[in-house]
Amino acid sequence: MDKKGPVKGKDMNDLTVMEDAAVAITNGNVVWIGSVEKAMNIQAEQTIDAEGKLVTPGLVEPHTHLVFGGSREKEMALKQQGVDYLDILKQGGGILATVNATKKANYEELLDKTLFHLDRMAMHGITTVEAKSGYGLDRDTELKQLKVAKEANVKHPLDVISTFLGAHAIPPEYREDPESFLDVMSDMFDEIKENNLAEFVDIFTETGVFTVEQSRRYLQKAKEKGFGVKLHADEIDQLGGTELAVEVGAISGDHLAVASDEGIEQLAASNTIGVILPGTSFYLGKDIYAKARQMIDSGAAIAISTDFNPGSSVTENLQFIMSIAALRLKLSPAEIWYAVTVNAAHAISRGHEAGSIATGRKADIVIWDAPNYMYIPYHYGVNHAKTVIKNGEVLYERQSIR
Ligand SMILES: N=CN[C@@H](CCC(=O)O)C(=O)O
Ligand SMILES: [Zn+2]
């Protein structure tokens, strides 16, 4: 699966599958791929027998809100009563509740919690993760989140790629003046760049949050400072965020649950990857799912992700999201695999090292308790990862209880 760029449209069905294959790893990288028979000639220091099970690239998770304080289980009752996600936010709950908890948490607590969630992701077969800030909404707390993500990248074997999402909500003190709030956040760009604290800048373009015009100006500034840009776009209300993602040359437009037909056409004709987060539709109890089928049929490149966060999608299990992608987005198993490997890696600028098993790439590999690639989305809600290998080292091995 040595793909140079994201895989688009109908090519997402053209999956490379080898039977009876073997992979040789040296110094954390894949150095050879071939048949088991030929592999018998290789003198290996260590051999792992995959026992005929499915072996794939490690999953790449291109959209998470990994670093946060607290949890929001009390909101579940409100959701059951039909209180809308944006109304909870308007009343100071939702994202703003997590902002308060994140402000209160000290650096060490946040780091511990982040490492815990990364462990869980690794146990579920994820080997590369994008992590957004956005639960600070003030300079110090945003920096605290970004520093935690940077340290987590060093301390934890998984690769953590950081995104600055200071423009995630309007804090109450700026309710009447969101422009000034965006100025405060964009004033941080230089410091973030100089300290290597984020590669991407993201914004929540949504009713009651930031408008298309505000988002355009903010993202242009980010681009001028050398950041790649991303958007939370067309998640709940159709504001034209998909079109904006294409217009500003975003590496990805994320959510896109209510993207217009015109937006989908533009996405298909662009280099922007649609990062679809069907876990949020599921978890917020909505019937509206992104038209991922139409996007691929129109020729777009799609990735899928958990959107792991404490409010709209509380799971580290990307395998479960793969099942939702099959059942609700109507994607084929091959499309789903591209969406969680090659395309997910390209959505965070890691297409050159992650998302495929190819010579010269990192040896990020998962052996699954599954007979074939179609099996993972089919058998839903459980963890199929048996052995997770990161940079050539076994990171996780499922213990047997028998
Ligand atoms: N929609 C905006 N942000 C997150 C949710 C964050 C939260 O509810 O805490 C998302 O991608 O769904
Ligand atoms: Zn998100």
UniProtKB/TrEMBL annotation:
<feature type="binding site">
    <location>
        <position position="65"/>
    </location>
    <ligand>
        <name>Zn(2+)</name>
    </ligand>
</feature>
<keyword id="KW-0408">Iron</keyword>
<keyword id="KW-0963">Cytoplasm</keyword>
<feature type="binding site">
    <location>
        <position position="307"/>
    </location>
    <ligand>
        <name>Fe(3+)</name>
    </ligand>
</feature>
<dbReference type="Pfam" id="PF01979">
    <property type="entry name" value="Amidohydro_1"/>
</dbReference>
<feature type="binding site">
    <location>
        <position position="309"/>
    </location>
    <ligand>
        <name>N-formimidoyl-L-glutamate</name>
    </ligand>
</feature>
<comment type="function">
    <text>Catalyzes the hydrolytic cleavage of the carbon-nitrogen bond in imidazolone-5-propanoate to yield N-formimidoyl-L-glutamate. It is the third step in the universal histidine degradation pathway.</text>
</comment>
<feature type="binding site">
    <location>
        <position position="232"/>
    </location>
    <ligand>
        <name>Fe(3+)</name>
    </ligand>
</feature>
<dbReference type="InterPro" id="IPR005920">
    <property type="entry name" value="HutI"/>
</dbReference>
<feature type="binding site">
    <location>
        <position position="63"/>
    </location>
    <ligand>
        <name>Fe(3+)</name>
    </ligand>
</feature>
<feature type="binding site">
    <location>
        <position position="311"/>
    </location>
    <ligand>
        <name>N-formimidoyl-L-glutamate</name>
    </ligand>
</feature>
<keyword id="KW-0378">Hydrolase</keyword>
<comment type="pathway">
    <text>Amino-acid degradation; L-histidine degradation into L-glutamate; N-formimidoyl-L-glutamate from L-histidine: step 3/3.</text>
</comment>
<dbReference type="InterPro" id="IPR011059">
    <property type="entry name" value="Metal-dep_hydrolase_composite"/>
</dbReference>
<feature type="binding site">
    <location>
        <position position="135"/>
    </location>
    <ligand>
        <name>N-formimidoyl-L-glutamate</name>
    </ligand>
</feature>
<protein>
    <recommendedName>
        <fullName>Imidazolonepropionase</fullName>
        <ecNumber>3.5.2.7</ecNumber>
    </recommendedName>
</protein>
<feature type="binding site">
    <location>
        <position position="72"/>
    </location>
    <ligand>
        <name>4-imidazolone-5-propanoate</name>
    </ligand>
</feature>
<dbReference type="GO" id="GO:0050480">
    <property type="term" value="F:imidazolonepropionase activity"/>
</dbReference>
<feature type="binding site">
    <location>
        <position position="307"/>
    </location>
    <ligand>
        <name>Zn(2+)</name>
    </ligand>
</feature>
<keyword id="KW-0862">Zinc</keyword>
<feature type="binding site">
    <location>
        <position position="63"/>
    </location>
    <ligand>
        <name>Zn(2+)</name>
    </ligand>
</feature>
<feature type="domain" description="Amidohydrolase-related">
    <location>
        <begin position="54"/>
        <end position="394"/>
    </location>
</feature>
<comment type="similarity">
    <text>Belongs to the metallo-dependent hydrolases superfamily. HutI family.</text>
</comment>
<feature type="binding site">
    <location>
        <position position="232"/>
    </location>
    <ligand>
        <name>Zn(2+)</name>
    </ligand>
</feature>
<keyword id="KW-0479">Metal-binding</keyword>
<keyword id="KW-0369">Histidine metabolism</keyword>
<dbReference type="InterPro" id="IPR032466">
    <property type="entry name" value="Metal_Hydrolase"/>
</dbReference>
<feature type="binding site">
    <location>
        <position position="235"/>
    </location>
    <ligand>
        <name>4-imidazolone-5-propanoate</name>
    </ligand>
</feature>
<feature type="binding site">
    <location>
        <position position="168"/>
    </location>
    <ligand>
        <name>4-imidazolone-5-propanoate</name>
    </ligand>
</feature>
<feature type="binding site">
    <location>
        <position position="65"/>
    </location>
    <ligand>
        <name>Fe(3+)</name>
    </ligand>
</feature>
<dbReference type="InterPro" id="IPR006680">
    <property type="entry name" value="Amidohydro-rel"/>
</dbReference>
<feature type="binding site">
    <location>
        <position position="135"/>
    </location>
    <ligand>
        <name>4-imidazolone-5-propanoate</name>
    </ligand>
</feature>
<feature type="binding site">
    <location>
        <position position="312"/>
    </location>
    <ligand>
        <name>4-imidazolone-5-propanoate</name>
    </ligand>
</feature>
